[in-house]
Amino acid sequence: MKTIFNHFLFILLLSFLSTFVQAQDTAYQCIYEPDAQTQEIARQVLAKMNSLKGQNQGNQTSLLTGVVKIPLVVHVIEPSTTSSIITDAEINAMVANLNAAYRATGAFAGSQDVEIEFELAKQDPTCNTTTGITRYDASGNATYVSKGVFNTGVSWATVQGWRTWAKNLYANIWIVHKLDNGAAGVGGPSEGFIVLANSVKTPNEQVSPHEIAHYFGLAHPFPTDATPGTNASCNCGDGDGLTDTPNLTAYSIGSICPHEWSCSSTTMNSLNPCTNLAYGNIQKNIMNYLNNTCGTQFTANQKTFMRNFIESYHSVLLTSPVLQTTPSTPIATISATPTFCTSTAFPNFSAMCLCSSVQTMTINGNVVTSYGLKPVLSAGQQSTWTYGLTCANGLTDTKTVLFYNPGVTNIITACGTGGVYSLTFNNPNNFMVTSSSGTVVGNSVINVPNGTNVVLTVSDANGCGNNQQTVISPCCSLGANSPVACTPTATNGLSNYFGIASFAFNGTPAINATSSSSQSDGKNYVDNSCLSQTNVIAGNTYTLTVGGHYTNAHKVKVYIDYNNNGLFTEADEIVLSGTTSGSTGGNIYSGTITIPNTAVANTLLRVRVLADPSSSSNSCTIVGQTGYGSGQIEDYALSITNNCTMYSVKSGNWDDATVWSCARIPTNSDIVTITAGHTVNVPSALIAHAKDVKAYGVLTVQQTGLLKLITP
């Protein structure tokens, strides 16, 4: 399986290669520049081709059926008013040549019939009759007249500003007199192509078939990452991801890497160093770098790829009405996939005002200049956006899109036996999940060794995502074994505005943690309970300080799971609550707490710190603000040592907290004194604990009762 090379803006260079070319033909070269959206669509097309029948792409068929027609508009950018750089007849000949190349006729007989035909548009954007050819007088622009386009000439964007018809309805071609980068043409899937007039006038020319293939997302069969002027990167590789084009030596503009340009029988029978097989028909492939008369063929997989790419990216072209001879009915329509994975690229939107022009575009009711926006979602989150279109003639349309970012939520760890732990998660969309450790079983991972962090990799069925979610190992070996009832979730996702900037707790040792916004930290929930711990003494008072990110006021809550049941809902477990000072006083909130004598002692207990703009947030949900994201929850841990002298204050049963001075039942950390004159009874079936017992009164243990002592 080859890997597609990640570039999709194509520059076609015309050069005379006397050193390498034995024939007297000219040869052309191309350069790619990355386009994330078309790169992702190409990846998905290849994934589908490979998934239907293993890796045997040759058995694949296009998602399209029958011959499809592509409407063209050709814009001639004239440098002079006295004569034209190309005639209408020559443009029609170029279109005929494209049809020959893509229907395997004439000079291209013997190639794959790609079943694509090209036709000049019959309606312009206002639904008036057209020849499909426009001419723009640029003679008043001295830069264009003398330098052409690119480098010291005008930009391609400038040319498109002069003349461009709706790119979702027409395949735009610009013909110019000069390209200042020495190129014959420049093109890409999201643009069309711009081409030198003289390069498309030659009979059976390969420039336009090559460039329009790039418009259909097809890459070169070789890598184009060779470093100019050196042979250090002349490595074997692949540029198109297709299995019926061989690996070739890398080549790029200015490269000195070896490359075969000829289609002679000698060259075709010579050895390809990347495969140890004869070069064969790759020396006739339209997408290879060849002498200008050699490229006459497409492969079966190239055909399948281009047709599937058209269906995925240029689908609106297939229903474009501009080839009709009768005027179209005005319409307003937005084309978009109803669901879209946000982890890569942007959705392929198309807003069309047929027979009119776009007046207003909106996203969720807000006016925008383009639809090139998408929500920022954490792994496992989804969001619905509504897109609106209003045309100048008053027609409107709306489209709702569900965005999602593959991931799992509510990840909960649980300590097991035998030195392992497990984790469970919610996966309602049935994303594909793999784990760096342990075994994935349904919506859980089992048998993870204690102390080993887990990386979950999550993607959708098309391979979009591959998001990595790290799960920190619970403190199984440190005694904090009680599971947490909830893993916090964030209603509005990551935020550049809110988060826990600092947390201080003056136990022993003191906790002095610093962080940033939830966006900077990359997560709304951070579990530091295994890494940041402190010790406190029951009955003593301590100071807690929470800092909010930047100068934005935060609602602060601090919880301590005193009874170690994994919950933070009890009234006495919310130990601190308030609002940070905002732009004054360092944006902190500080307070003191007294550790109760009734808390579980000598066990790591979880401390949960919340900072968020919403007062509705709690220990499980970080609400945040719409459009600004959510703050953070961070967990820490503490262990409580009893500082209370445990003695009886009256007679009674051992398991009665009112019998004892510390208002709780003794534990194995207490030295217990039975006061003179008191009788303390250990009832039947009770197992009592103490570090030691000093009995100045009477201690009785019933027949099935038990007292366990831990003495130094």
How would you summarize this macromolecular structure in one to three sentences?
With 712 residues, the chain is mainly beta.
What is the percentage of strand-forming residues? 25-35%
Question: Nearest-angstrom radius of gyration?
Answer: 36 Å
- Fraction in helix: 10-25%
Uncertain regions spanning at least 5 consecutive residues: 1-26, 52-59
CATH domain fold name of the largest domain: Collagenase (Catalytic Domain)
* Global structural class: mainly beta
Biggest pleated-sheet summary: 8 strands, mixed
Identify the CATH architecture of the largest domain.
3-Layer(aba) Sandwich
In total, the number of domains comes to 4
Mean pLDDT: 85
Helix-strand blueprint:
Elements: E1 9-15, E2 27-33, H1 36-52, E3 53-55, E4 68-78, H2 88-103, E5 116-120, E6 133-137, H3 142-147, H4 156-162, E7 171-176, E8 183-188, E9 192-196, H5 207-215, E10 236-237, E11 248-249, H6 265-269, E12 271-272, E13 277-278, H7 300-313, H8 315-318, E14 331-335, E15 339-341, E16 350-354, E17 358-363, E18 366-368, E19 382-391, E20 396-404, E21 409-415, E22 420-426, E23 432-435, E24 439-441, E25 444-449, E26 454-459, E27 467-471, E28 489-490, E29 500-505, E30 511-514, H9 518-521, E31 525-527, E32 533-537, E33 541-548, E34 555-560, E35 574-579, E36 588-594, E37 605-612, E38 621-622, E39 632-641, E40 646-647, E41 652-653, E42 671-674, E43 679-682, E44 687-690, E45 692-695, E46 698-701, E47 706-709
Helix pairs in contact: 1-7
Domain Peptidase M43 pregnancy-associated plasma-A: 195-311
GO molecular function: metallopeptidase activity
Domain GEVED: 556-638
